[in-house]
Amino acid sequence: MADYLHRIGDRIDHGEGISGPAAQRLLDAARDAATRFDGMFLSPRQVRALLNDPRLQVHDNPQAFLTCAYDPAKALCHPDHAGHGGEQPRLDRCNPACANTARTDSTSPT
Ligand code: SF4
Q1: Is the minimum distance from the CB of 57 to ligand 1 under 6 angstroms?
Q2: Which of 31, 46, 54, 108 has the smallest CB count inside 10 Å?
Q3: Chain centroid, CA 40 distance in Å
Q4: Model confidence pTM above 0.70
């Protein structure tokens, strides 16, 4: 996740655009991760902090040409999608209409 956020941050720095309903959350996560973790070898405690921070729950989903900025309250991939979606997105059931989607220029399916 830290590597992926680092790569997203690099692409943004090189002028790549981000779109989609979760674009701002993806931008914020990349900036937050860069501030907190960039260039560091993460200790187990830092890894736990990263994995447990709801603002940094960003998952690459190349099969759906998007990034999931996971907020369980908005997830359409879980049957009840009412805020009880669990701690991980179901990337295999990703719905492109979900409010957690964001796309970079290089992940858009054009
Ligand atoms: S439907 Fe897709 S974008 Fe939405 S939470 Fe699930 S995996 Fe993420």
Answers
A1: no
A2: 54
A3: 20
A4: yes
